[in-house]
Amino acid sequence: MSSRTTLIVGLVGLVAVIGLTFVLDPYRNYQLATIAAYLCVVAGLTMLTGVNGQLSLGHAALAACGAYCYAFTANGLAEQEVTGPVLLILPILAAVVGAAVLGLVVGLAAARLHGPYLAGVTLALVIALPAITSRFSDVFNGDQGLYISVERRPEFLAGRGGTEMFQAWVAIACAALVVILLRNLMKGNFGRQMRAVRDNEVAAAIAGVNVARTKVIAFTVSSAAAGVGGAVLAFMTQSANPGAFSLVFSLFLLMAAVIGGIGTLYGALWGSILLVVLPDAIGSLTKSLSLSPEVAQRLDGNLAVGLFGAIMVLVVIVAPLGIQGLLRKGRLKMQSRGTPQSVPVPK
Amino acid sequence: MTLKRNRAFAVVGAASVLALAACSSPGGGGGDAQDVPGVTEDKIVIGTHQPLTGPAAAGFSSISAATSAYFDYINDNGGINGREIEFIVKDDGYNPANTQTVVRDLVLQEEVFAILGGLGTPTHSAVIDFLNENEVPDLFVSGGSPMWDQPEKYPWTFGYNSEYIAEAAILAQYAQQEMPDGTYCMFGQDDDFGDDFEKGALEILGADGLAASERYSVANQDVTAQISALKAANCDVVFLASINGFTALAVGTAAQLGFFPQWMATSAGGDYGTLEKDYLQENAPLLLENFISTFYLSLETNQDDPWVEHFQMVQDEYNGGGEIGGNDIFGMNMAYMFAEALAAAGENPTRESIVEAIESGAVKGSGLVPLGYSPEDHTGNTGVQLSQVKSGVQAYFGAPYVYENGEVTEYTGGQVPFENGIPGSN
User: What are the φ/ψ torsions at residue A2 (nearest 5 degrees)?
Assistant: First the structure.
């Protein structure tokens, strides 16, 4: 498919989603913004793990790095009484740079490590986060985290719901940018190199691919994407704190990538939607079951986690390529019914 | 990639987006100006965020259950002004990011009339701007931060707990009286809880009054390093600005290290019943002998107290029975205070009228010390009384104290007398 058609399809999709923000009520817009924020992180993670074969359990920490960079920059600008688009765009850029630099440092180590060892290093990153923020409490304000002065919604959006709509726009714009850039990267020459490194490092090296460089760049780019996600979350919640970027969140991000379909950007989208919609749906379900309040309260937080686990197990057994893999399989089946000679082309 | 694939994706995407739109309810459109969110002819809906899971759950999850039980009791007796109170409890796991989500859910989706007793300083400070921007009454926040008491900046927010700064000052003054030559130290949570406590303690003890001041992070369950440092500093008195789980952890860890100072805890983490039942169990009487703590409501050990008798009755009939604890009294008193505010807000309550009712002083609660509410002051309980554990029984001693402008004074007004469990009825 030509890049022009992709562009058109992408633009139509973007316009449709933006249009949707006018229809949805404020809470759904907030959820939409959350999906977009998660998509930034999961898309980067799915490229790193699915395409380049590097497993990261620490993407929450990289997102946190983005959130804190956003917070410092935004608060600094607000102190200088800067407002308007600058107060929105500059902190996001700072988040990208900050997360990319941290990603580069980790990536340099990652290039020398494999599988479980890399997972261990990235795991340490996310576990160390609360210790770091509480050790340097003067800077990070410990567990409570930082309160952020953010750019408010434009005046014409004032009133009920305008804030959430504005948040959704910012989040969608960031996610679109991240997805477009990652897509180009994955489709191009560098994408081939990443896949070659994933499949066989020795073969890739013989073929002239610089293995270490490829891995470092992939990690850095993926970290930058996580930084954008963290910045959007910080912008939405007006706060940056270690609790928001816990180990559980990190595992959820990886789960989203796997359940959605690892290595594909559509998979990242499905996974991000599920991360937001599933707990909400479970909440409605327990409410409609008219359980005793005590049981309902207990289920509220825990059932979502349990269900995620169950879905994860099911996906790995039934559809190892995730939701996107399942959809693709279904479509290929339908196509082959019509045109018997069509053969799925390996990627 | 084929065009077909993209088209299929677009179709699926559009379908999921439509599904999302279908689940969303149009937010109360078409109503006239008289419409008050969460209020109907016979019902009023309010919500809260609580740590039902996570690091603070074991100590605090019983609070919202007690509050719900008290509302059940009120509803079974005709409600307030003919309206039943529906209380929606959402779990935020003591994580500020979750608080953001669940409070938005409550305000924008469930369209609650007010938020009642949102628990936790770090969690609630994440939503205080959102609530005030949307003009949602933010009543009786469960946390002792002075942040809740800023009527100019946050006109919709009212505190509930005695402020940490007040508790610290009262504890410090007592420590100074009892052990004038002691070495004082503190072990506190690494957020405003710890900071405010330290400020209050130093106000009384002087700038270098604390020989050691250690902090913990709720994310880390190991406090050996901090307790070792306190032991090394030869502390005679350790003030605890900690939630229940970390009070237990501190006391237990110290005992393992052979370190037995005089502990002095705040009301947020010093309820003997909770510490025993949820954490220390059969070791509690030994570990907590002489343990000093503050509180500003009835203690369950005082069985002659008519408030305790009344709350115990509600506990028996609506909250699964069993002996009432400090958290239950805390939660039920909160429900009672909301009922008082609602009764005073008039036949047709609005968000403005309930705020006015509270500022007018119509809410008395059941506390040992007065509530601070006025148009200029949104502080909850203005002081505390000290209690001590003797042979596994926590009981008050001395007089209650109130704190104002850096001074601790004895309060002689006495506890609010019990008249009727349903405010506004006779």
Answer: -75, 155
The C-alpha atoms of residue B308 and residue B194 are separated, in whole angstroms, by 31
Backbone angles phi, psi at A305, to 5 degrees: -65, -45
- B12 in A contact zone (CB under 8 Å): yes
Best mean pLDDT range from A126-140, A157-171, B48-62, B228-242: B228-242
User: Any chain A CB within 8 A of the CB of B351?
Assistant: no
| Measured distance CA(A162)–CA(A261) in Å, rounded | 34
Nearest CA in chain A to B127: A237
| Inter-chain touch A143–B217, beta carbons under 8 Å | yes
CB pairs under 8 A between A and B: 160
> By C-alpha distance, which of B269, B149, B144, B143 is closest to B200?
B144
Residues B297, B82: Cα–Cα separation, whole Å: 29
Task: Give the residue from B111, B161, B155 showing the smallest Cα distance to B137.
Answer: B155
How far is residue A174 from each of residues A171, B144, B373, measured CA to CA in Å?
Answer: 5, 38, 45
ipTM greater than cut 0.85: no
Instruction: Name the pTM for this structure.
Output: 0.79
The separation between CA A142 and the C-alpha centre of its own chain, rounded to angstroms, equals 25
pLDDT bin (cut points 50, 70, 90) of residue A298 is low
Q: Is A78 on the interface with B (CB under 8 A)?
A: no
Provide the chain A residues 20-49 that lie in CB contact (below 8 A) with chain B: 20, 23-28, 30-32, 34
Residues 6+ apart with CB under 8 A from B305: B298, B299, B415
Q: What is the DSSP string of B219-270?
A: T----HHHHHHHHHTT-SEEEEE--HHHHHHHHHHHHHTT---EEEE-GGG-
- B22 vs A: CB within 8 A: no
Q: What is the 3-state secondary structure (H, E, C) of chain A?
A: CCHHHHHHHHHHHHHHHHHHHHHCCHHHHHHHHHHHHHHHHHHHHHHHHHHCCCCCCCHHHHHHHHHHHHHHHHHHHHHCCCCCHHHHHHHHHHHHHHHHHHHHHHHHHHCCCCHHHHHHHHHHHHHHHHHHHHHCHHHHCHHHCEECCCCCCCHHHCCCCHHHHHHHHHHHHHHHHHHHHHHHHHHCHHHHHHHHHHHCHHHHHHCCCCHHHHHHHHHHHHHHHHHHHHHHHHHHHCEECHHHHCHHHHHHHHHHHHHHCCCCHHHHHHHHHHHHHHHHHHHHHHHHCCCCHHHHHHHHHHHHHHHHHHHHHHHHHHCCCHHHHHHHHHHHHHHHHHCCCCCCCCC
Judge whether residue B316 has pLDDT over 90: yes
Reduced to 3 DSSP states, what percent helix, strand and coil does chain B have, rounded to the nearest 5?
A: 40, 20, 40
Counting residues of chain A whose pLDDT is more than 90, the rounded percentage is: 50
What is the distance, to the nearest Å, from the Cα of residue A302 to the centroid of all Cα atoms in its chain?
A: 23
Mean pLDDT in residue range A192-201: 94
Residue of B nearest to A130 (CA): B219
Amino acid, single-letter form, for residue B291: F
